[in-house]
Design a protein that fits this description.
Elements lengths: L5 H8 L4 H27 L4 H25 L3 H27 L5 H36 L7
Length: about 150
């Protein structure tokens, strides 16, 4: 029987656990749908300064959430922390946007559906933080030994 050493445990820790993959998928989906919402806003709303600013901010949130989702699925602790913060902020911002839209007679089911998706992504990313930090520590220990893990 082969004995596993501490290095083998570190290599095993680099594999993304299910919660990290689920959080990454949720953040990525949230990001992609947020980009679609931004494009919907650019095309469907009158181009006045407030709408342009909100649409541009929504586009930035979408791109950030997509990239953070990819890194979270790759078991990065910083990405799980960033995903929790960014998805939580976007859930609040999107909820505000939905209320503003309803007040002005505009209904966007995409914007309405993104509120719970963003909240779910933030919650999953929050649960993924410990696993991501553990993988970061293992990655640091392996890096100190000269082993450069990839993505």
């Amino acid at each position: 029987m082969v004995e596993l050493g501490p290095d083998d445990d570190d290599i095993e820790s680099l594999k993304a656990p299910l919660i990290m993959r689920l959080a990454g998928i949720a953040l990525g989906l949230d990001g992609v749908f947020t980009v679609v919402l931004a494009l919907q806003n650019f095309v469907g709303l009158p181009m006045r300064a407030p709408f342009i600013a909100v649409s541009a901010l929504t586009l930035c949130f979408g791109v950030a959430l997509t990239l953070i989702g990819v890194r979270t699925a790759g078991a990065r602790g910083w990405a799980a922390i960033a995903g929790t913060v960014v998805a939580g902020l976007f859930a609040l911002a999107d909820l505000t946007w939905v209320v503003f839209e309803f007040a002005h007679g505009v209904v966007s089911l995409l914007a309405l559906g993104l509120v719970p998706l963003s909240a779910l992504a933030a919650i999953l990313a929050g649960f993924a933080i410990p696993a991501g930090l553990q993988a970061d520590k293992a990655r640091f220990r392996l890096d100190a030994q000269g082993f450069k893990p990839g993505f």
